[in-house]
Design a protein that fits this description.
Distance between the termini: 42 Å
Largest sheet: 10 strands, antiparallel, barrel
Strand content: over 45%
Helix content: 10-25%
Low-confidence stretches: 1-15, 28-46, 57-71, 73-82
Strand order of the largest sheet: 1-3-4-6-7-8-9-10-11-12
Order of helices and strands: HHEHEEEEEEEEEEHE
Radius of gyration: 32 Å
Number of strands: 12
């Protein structure tokens, strides 16, 4: 364990090392960075650091830190409040996912007694696309010369594959607790969601290559659920004779598996401006890759809720009376039962990502953007493998490929 002085030394050594690397890369790129339009230099701090400028301005009074807050700012063409230079992108995205082997999943669905066969399928769909969002905020503080901080998020909710079986009727004669016919509906759903959060340090260079490195967390959650709902559209009648009872019983069951892939690790990559044919339009993109520890949570779930409604004709003598009165007593009893078996594990995972975008500048601060991206996972576990695996279940490593379009806005100050 490093000493307190060692920790302090690392706090100052790491930014210095990153700044030195960025400076070396900047010098190399200044030699050949062909198609970029030169960016205007900021005059925010011509004679000193950020803190020195604020201290010097404090003598003038006014503003929360002294001096007029409407001095020339650190951003490009920025004469607004003094502060960091911001670059924020907000994109809506559509990510496509490869179809799953749905026949193998449906082969594991069995009829529920007293039925001996499954009804025909009424509707069936496989994985296609999911809508989501990508956000990235970059902030460059002039006092931290040479690099900027980035915080990013990407998420998609949700991919869905499902199979709906035709409505079937179960005769009362086949039901032990029901005196009326019951309708039954079967539904199988496969859901998948993705959420990712990252924090990076990126080199600020005058050229077209900007390397970055940081930490990232990705959550890939999947579940397969087999729902069966029994219900009735018939009103339970009243017993005719005293002592007689009529009842109906319905149930809702869910059997399923779920997997949570929690990937935590480090990533690195490079963002680049590849082509700028005009001042208003340019093409940029990024490529990244990371090594992760995948903490996997697996669950096998069974839930059942049974509701029994009973009507009984009874004869009672009211208090102070002599003549029996017949009434109907109705009782509703519900029972919920279930079980959950959980296992967990860890494995090494790899994630690579790339995107290319076209950006059209609307004004000095705002731009439209749109492009295409791909994400590849290796070392994750998917719910279909857990669903179809015969006992004893052995965790299976799998891969996943996502791709799709995005479009949105970019804001700079």
């Amino acid at each position: 364990m490093p000493s307190g002085l060692g920790k302090i030394g690392w706090r100052f050594a790491l930014p210095a090392l990153l700044a030195a690397s960025c400076a070396a890369l900047s010098a190399a790129q200044e030699v050949a960075s062909p198609t970029l339009v030169p960016l205007e230099a900021s005059a925010a701090y011509p004679n000193g650091t950020f803190s020195e400028q604020l201290a010097a301005a404090s003598a003038a009074g006014g503003g929360p830190v002294g001096g007029s807050p409407f001095r020339t700012g650190p951003g490009l063409r920025d004469n607004w409040l003094v502060g960091p230079r911001w670059r924020v992108t907000a994109d809506g995205l559509v990510l496509f996912r490869d179809a799953v082997d749905f026949d193998a999943i449906l082969a594991e669905v069995e009829p529920i007694p007293p039925a001996t066969t499954l009804p025909p399928l009424e509707f069936r769909s496989n994985f296609d696309h999911a809508a989501g969002v990508r956000l990235l905020a970059s902030s460059q503080y002039p006092q931290f010369e040479g690099y900027e901080l980035q915080v990013g998020y990407v998420g998609a909710e949700k991919w869905l594959a499902e199979a709906l079986y035709e409505l079937e009727t179960i005769a009362a004669i086949d039901l032990p607790l029901s005196d009326i016919d019951i309708l039954q509906r079967r539904l199988l759903e496969y859901e998948s969601t993705l959420h990712a959060l990252e924090v990076n340090f990126q080199c600020v260079t005058p050229g077209y290559l900007k390397p970055f490195a940081g930490v990232r967390y990705l959550s890939l959650d999947e579940s397969i659920s087999d729902f069966n709902r029994q219900f009735t559209t018939v009103i339970l009648g009243d017993p005719l004779d005293v002592g007689d009872t009529l009842s109906s019983a319905t149930s809702q069951t869910r059997r399923g598996v779920s997997i949570e892939n929690n990937l935590i690790g480090f990533q690195g990559g490079v963002r680049l401006d590849m082509w700028r044919p005009t001042r208003r339009f340019h093409v940029n993109g990024f490529v990244s890759g990371g090594l992760y520890c995948n903490i996997v949570d697996r669950d096998h779930v069974f839930e059942e809720r049974t509701t029994v409604t009973t009507k009984e004709r009874v004869s009672t003598i009211p208090t102070g009376g002599t003549t029996p009165v017949e009434t109907i007593d109705t009782t509703v009893n519900s029972l919920t039962a279930g079980s959950k078996a959980s296992t967990d594990g860890t494995r090494v995972a790899l994630v690579t990502e790339a995107a290319v975008a076209g950006v059209w500048q609307l004004n000095e601060s705002l731009a439209l953007r749109g492009g295409y991206q791909v994400i590849y996972f290796n070392g994750v576990e998917l719910a279909d493998a857990l669903w179809v695996a015969p006992p004893p279940v052995t965790p299976q490593e799998d891969d996943l490929f996502l791709h799709g379009w995005f479009g949105g806005l970019e804001y700079r100050r």
